[in-house]
């Protein structure tokens, strides 16, 4: 009797520790008790469960198997061992153990939850749903959360949040409730709250790979790519066989400008599943960036062989300037368009790929039809409000006035000199970057997302706090210096050489010229300008990987171009001489003169290598990655004339900036 009371007290103490999140202390309590009573079945089984919770799978297995040998009629160790096999992706063994647990004790909801997962992994959907329904029947908390999830899908977030809050109040360690609350907060734009919830889940279940996946994907959506990479690395360290997560990790490394690392990760994903098409295509992208075009083509073609309907693989081939489709491939693209039943993005890629195939054959009538179809479908799927763009630009012009720049700011920022290449996409910025990156003192990066990300965060999460751009008016020189240091900190991931100068060719940074000037007075800013018609048609012909949502409607693209010109004129007015304008057509006509002008502006000594930019070996992550590995050519000048019959409205809108 005394032993039973002692065991009961120990178990109660252990559960209190577990329920308060003190799992390691619970483990220590179990071990301490078992030193005196090594064969106490209840505490031994509990230690196995605690080891499982802590991710000590091998020890958990040994303890749980011992518990089952000592007491074959004890249901819980079978359930825990089954959950361990689920973590190891052994659904058949898991299902057998969970079924045995249910035979011994059919009242445990958690056993049915695990059984449902295992059956689903085995493809037994009907049996999995039956197990899930039994789980919901036995668990009031699970029923509440299922109701909340349904309300979220019905866009009744307030009701769902109320249910989750109540569950979380009663069961503070219930990560399912916290995960749903994080989703609700994310969709409602309360990103600070969402992040806090996701990090709380990790604190509760720091051995659960899913918690790190959720945080990584959330951070990726916020543009906080380095942090997203850290989170996904934690996930794959816990569970290396996550093919889709490995692929997303590769995507994020690519965004960070680390193509060699990204290539390794894609290879890891393909070692897990050689037919995983997103990883095949991602691998092709990295090979292309690294200049290995033949290998890139093989990767894309391998993806098409597995999934002929995977539009991104076709578009990736089409966007290689040196690749030509065969007649059979063109017929296959047409078949895929006509018979496509997959997701909308894939069909859009197919239209753009077909347009490029038509251009190869100089069938510009057919190409235009495909561009119109592809762009119309893409425009329907992206969020872009030209009025919102204009209002934001009005605010920037109002805030960044002459009086603001006349203040005595002088923030002190030590470190390398960033060279911002701004402007419209498809305006020659990649060529400018390649010329600069050929200089021994300049490191080329890519389109870095950090200036926009940091600007958006200005003002902080405080209720009623001014946001960017209005927040600038309340900043001190020290705060501006901190902003500049934050930018240099984030950009460090993309510049491993730590050269004295580095490039950032994010086009949309043209709206942030004033902020760049205030926060980093040493920064250089170059406006890459191109003929307005060529620019807009170049945008309309390009299916961008992300953003540039103005480009999928010609009218909106033309209006955006005028907005860009308006903003740049404002910077010229309030910061005369601060920005160097480089006209693409002038650069093509006289590369040496323009290169000398660029280097002089950047305060860089002349180096002949800048004229041999096409020989520079570096990763180039842009649609122009092939062109910059060739000498200057003028084929792209006036390309808009191929589509002149359809451009009357475009020309009318651009009339204020068109030259005679």
Describe the model.
- The protein is globular and about 90 Å long.
- It has helices spanning 2-19, 23-36, 41-53, 57-70, 75-87, 91-104, 109-121, 125-138, 140-153, 157-170, 175-187, 191-204, 209-221, 225-238, 243-255, 259-272, 277-289, 293-306, 311-318, 327-338, 344-360, 364-381, 386-399, 402-405, 429-437, 450-457, 477-491, 513-519, 532-540, 554-574, 584-589, 591-601, 648-654, and strands at 417-423, 442-443, 501-504, 524-529, 579-583.
- The chain is built from 33 helices and five strands.
- The longest helix is centred in the last third of the chain and has 21 residues, at 554-574.
- Among the domains are: 2-141, Tetratricopeptide repeat domain (Serine Threonine Protein Phosphatase 5, Tetratricopeptide repeat, Alpha Horseshoe); 311-381, no CATH class; 388-632, Rossmann fold (3-Layer(aba) Sandwich).
- The protein has a five-stranded parallel beta sheet with strand order 2-3-1-4-5, sandwiched between helices.
- The chain is mostly helical.
- The protein starts with a helix and ends in a 6-residue tail after the last helix.
- The model has no long low-confidence stretch (mean pLDDT 89).
Query: What's the pLDDT, averaged over the residues?
Result: 89
Computed over alpha carbons, the radius of gyration is 29 Å
Indicate the CATH class of the domain at 388-632.
Alpha Beta
Roughly how much helix do the residues carry, as a percent range? 55-70%
Q: How many individual helices?
A: 33
Class from helix and strand fractions: mainly alpha
The dominant shape is: globular
Q: Strand order within the widest sheet?
A: 2-3-1-4-5
Return residue spans where pLDDT drops below 50 for at least 5 consecutive residues. none
CATH 2nd-level architecture of the domain at 388-632: 3-Layer(aba) Sandwich
Q: Would you report the number of β strands? A: 5
Amount of beta strand: under 5%
Within CATH, the superfamily of the domain at 388-632 carries the name P-loop containing nucleotide triphosphate hydrolases
CATH fold-level label of the domain at 388-632: Rossmann fold
